[in-house]
């Protein structure tokens, strides 16, 4: 590890060994909260390990102890909670919590897990250690990317600015929508890393990716819509590090990381012998794939020279006869986590929400202060600054910031007037964080 350590090797081993799956009913409970904090620590340490490039023990520990399937199940469980239970909580008229942070932590849990998976799936052995759950993870990524394409036709992700008319639960719903966009972008990277292992994936997984979901055509649509880019006031902006950034004219021809992930995934799925043997090039598929030729410019090929092979493949495809659609008679595995969780909890969504409303999401002031102290210990400022991909930005206007809130030390601002304008939104979180610091 590097000079800055969040976890000692022995601590990391204990935390990884202790990872387990929780029933939906227990999300937000004391034991679940402890695991969420542990996951955040593992997440930050994994990023530190990758940054200093001195071995990556978190990834090795997850593989050694067989915990990747556990993370995949937890990821899909919290995705289901957000779809089935969270909307029920938001519809309860007399539920007006003074602080929504306990609920926010459950909503944020999905982002924490997908971020950790994005960091460690770069390594081929991690994908292999997912075993049968790689099918569930492929389905998860497909759901997220389909949603990303659908939303790109509706103006992209919601803006972060809140409204003074929103109650805390409405504000939390808006934050969850923005978070969903960021999660989908992480899922794109995870999917790309899975395609790097296409030569070792099972036939069932390949069939799921190419026949059931037709991922190459979905990736073409992502390139067409490019939901992580937009024009605002005549200027090109790209979504990076949870914010929209204006791209300088001199940088506009530079391939973005997300576009690069799509191109590499397409390269893997279209040119590997294993995938070519399974992918049926129907007239529909041919029409979609040939759209790629318009994007394969000299500038792009200079940045990703291997795409010249893809360009040759498309030139051959343009002249080739299309294949009729076919169904191979193959005994295939199917993803089972989502279906099993839905079967176990079907008809119980209201009861789960009612239980969590009474016993989990209505903590006392003392409980909140104790939790705030634990959050402050988990999110150490020196570590957060080390894992941040770039300089901090103003919480109000997104400009580069150099001033930090003097009370909680968490939010950044470029100017005093921005802090004043943002205070109403920031006040409750700030007070809670400050109480946690005093409790230490």
TrEMBL record:
InterPro entries in the record: UCP037948_Znf-MYND, ZMYND10, Znf_MYND
PANTHER family linked: ZINC FINGER MYND DOMAIN CONTAINING PROTEIN 10, ZINC FINGER MYND DOMAIN-CONTAINING PROTEIN 10
Record key words, sorted: Cytoplasm, Metal-binding, Zinc, Zinc-finger
Family, similarity comment: Belongs to the ZMYND10 family.
Function: Plays a role in axonemal structure organization and motility. Involved in axonemal pre-assembly of inner and outer dynein arms (IDA and ODA, respectively) for proper axoneme building for cilia motility. May act by indirectly regulating transcription of dynein proteins.
Superkingdom of the organism of origin: Eukaryota
Lineage: Eukaryota, Metazoa, Chordata, Craniata, Vertebrata
Secretion signal span: none
Gene: ZMYND10
SUPFAM superfamilies per the UniProt record, alphabetical: HIT/MYND zinc finger-like (SSF144232)
Domain called MYND-type: residue spans: 394-430
Gene source species: Saguinus oedipus
Protein localization: Cytoplasm, Cytoskeleton, Microtubule organizing center, Centrosome, Centriolar satellite; Dynein axonemal particle
Pfam families to which the protein is assigned, alphabetical: zf-MYND (PF01753)
Annotated protein name in UniProt: Zinc finger MYND domain-containing protein 10
